[in-house]
Structure formats: structure tokens, C-alpha cells
Amino acid sequence: MNGEKNLNKAWIVCLAAGLFFLYEFIQMDFFNSINQVIRTNFALNATQIGFLSILYNLATILMLIPVGLITDRFSLRKVITIAMSVSVTGTFMLAFSSSLEAAEISRIVSGAGGAFAFVCCVKLATHWFPAQKMSFVTGVLVSFAMLGGVMAQTPIILLTQVMLWRHMVLVLACCGVVIIFINLLIIRDFPEQKHNNKKQAGNDNQLSVCKSITMSLRNGQNWFCGLYVSLLNLPVVLLGSLWGNLYLVRVNYLTSIQAGDIISAMFLGIIVGAPSLGYLSDRIKRRKLPMLLCALLSALIIVLIITMHQKTLFTYIALFFLLGFVSSGQTIGYPTITESNPPAYNGTALSLGALIVMSGSVFRVVFGKILDLHSGQYAGYHAHLYSAADFQVAILIMPVAFVVAFFVALFVKETYCSAVS
């Protein structure tokens, strides 16, 4: 009975922290739904909107190593509260921004706070769950966060049809305030075993900052897993966060609402796939094999999406759901990192992996640059000047990335779901 009670509490605590992760996914992805409105409001071309969008990610990248060091040394409950307060402050700033420069600063502030979301969630989960369940738990947390990706699609589009985009951002900021209070009420750093808590806290703080960073950098697993996750995360980075809606509208002549529904199907695929593939990985006690298969299947499905013509709406939804499902195998990379590094610095190691993953956001700018170059002109905020052919060239980034991910996974060492001591 006590075991079941402790397990239920573990899920409640970790899912409460997962609200932070969910919120940050909305922050990252809602630009996809208001792409045209933002470009018109600030008179931006494709390269400029791509840059504005990834400022959130750039700020996150710059913060990630400090994030790891902080989460290895301080109360996660306090860190989550402060970090999310910073992120929400940036959201309020965006709602009141009167210039492009102000909007850029707001995205940097939000990104700095949001940098803590994923690492804090996974680190907290390692305090409450055994290593043998971490792939499934990580998958559930990622699935929970992907609900934010779904909310950032059609619901945001519908909201901006009934209110100004700035008002929509204000609503998002107020939701963030509510989540902060929920986290304060529910989150605890450890199960209620004071002696073990103090012992664990001492273990987590025993390494110096320099040694934590050095040991994390020297572990090739962190680099290979981080790169693998980054490449398989491109459906979220490119299609879910910024370009998916316009790609579907321009290439396939769909409405904005239909495109939003299709992108939502991709996020739903991740929601189903992440815990399912995580459970499978835990069950067969293998990390490498599922990673290899997911990379190959992702390449196959994106090729079908690009090359198949005259698809029905159902076919689009099915293919994007499958793309989300198989690409969610990326989440297996995170427990592989935690299992490959001692608890004393696995927060720092996770941050290094997350830094590599977030660096993949540069592909948003690359995608926009390809659009501008292939169109032969800077189309500015006139979306119709980018042709279907322009988008078809830019989208080729994705199948190439998935093939590269397969070869990267070949270098990952199998952990057999066992954590190092």
C-alpha cells in the first residue's frame, strides 16, 4: 500500500513539474500559428522571423550549462519557481512590445527561464523513480509537454481569430502565473525520507563545477545522444515551431486551420509514441536498437510526405501522426545520458545533451534562408511570394538529417537500462 502511495505521489510531483515543460513548449511553438501576423506586424522577411523565433532557443542554449550546474546543487522546487517566473515575465514583455527590438528582448528573457524546464523535470524524476523506469517516465514527461505543442497550433490560431495576438500572449502569460502557484503547492525535491534526502544532496554536491563540466564533456555518449536527439527533433523545430503551417498551406493548398490540425496530429503522434517507445525500450532493456529503427522510419515517412501528391486530409494527418510517433524515439536518448553519467553530475550531462539539442533550432534560420535564396528575392512579410517549389527545396533538410541521425546512433554505446554508480 505504501509503495503504491509513493508511486502515485511520484507521478503527481513529476507531472506538476511537467506543467512547466508543457508551458515552455507552448512558448517555443506558438510562433508557428502567428507567423504571418508577426511578420506583418513587424514587417519581417523569412530570415528575420526565423531569427526572432530562435532567440528563445539561443537564450536557452547559453543558459544550459549553468542550468545543469544549478540543478545539481540547489533545490529543484526553488529553481523551477524562479525559472518559470522569469519565463512568464518575458511573455508579459512580448505582449507589450512596441518594436522588434523589444520583442527580441522578451524572447531572450523567456528562453533564459525556459532553459530550466526539461533538465529540472528529468532530474526531479531521477529522485523519485528507479533507473529501470526512466525511459518510460521521460517519455510520459515529453508526451505531457507535447500537449503544449498541440495547444500552440489550432487553439492558438482560433484565439488569434477572435482577439489580437497581443491579447492572446497576455492570456498565455496569466496561465503561466497559475502554473507557478501549482508548482509551489505540489513539487517536493525528494520522497519523504529525510536521512536519504540529505545523503543524496551531499552526493549531488560533492564534485567541483570544473570537474562536473569536464567529466560531462569527456563522455562521448553525451555528444552522440545529444546530436541524435537534435536531428530527430527537427519535426518539432521546423514543422511544429515555425514553418509547418506555411509549408502545408503553400505546397498542399490547405487552409490554415487544416494545416494546424495536421501539425497537431504530429504532436499527438509524439504524445503516443514517446511513452510507448520508452516502455518498449525499458521492457527489452535496449536503447540503441530502438534509436536506430526510429531514425530509419523517420527518414522513410518524411520522404513519403514530400513526394506523395494529391493526398487527402486523412492521409496528411496519418503521415504526420506517424512522423511524430517514430521521431519520438529521440526521447530514448535522454535516459541513455542519465544512465551513462554518475548522479553527482548527471544534471550537467543532461544540460550538455540539451544544449546540443537546442542548437538544432538554427535549422529554422537555415530553412528561412533557403526560402529567401531559392525565391531569388527577399519576400518580406508577403508570404505568397514564396512558391511551393521554394518550400519543397527547404524541406529536404529533414530527410538528410534523419539519415545522419542513423549513423550517429551507431556510435552510441548500449547501456542495457543500467545506470552507472
Structure overview:
- With 421 residues, the protein is mainly alpha-helical.
- The chain has a single domain, classed as Up-down Bundle (Growth Hormone, Chain: A).
- It starts with a helix and ends in a 12-residue tail after the last helix.
- Helix 1 runs parallel beside helix 4.
- The protein contains 21 helices and no strands.
- Total strand segments: 0
Structural class: mainly alpha
> What's the helix-strand series?
HHHHHHHHHHHHHHHHHHHHH
CATH fold field value: Growth Hormone, Chain: A
What would you report as the Rg, rounded to the nearest angstrom?
21 Å
Integer count of domains: 1
The CATH fourth-level homologous superfamily: MFS general substrate transporter like domains
Poorly predicted tracts of residues: 201-205
Question: Portion of residues in helices?
Answer: over 70%
Query: First CA to last CA: what distance?
Result: 29 Å
Mean pLDDT: 86
What is the beta-strand fraction?
under 5%
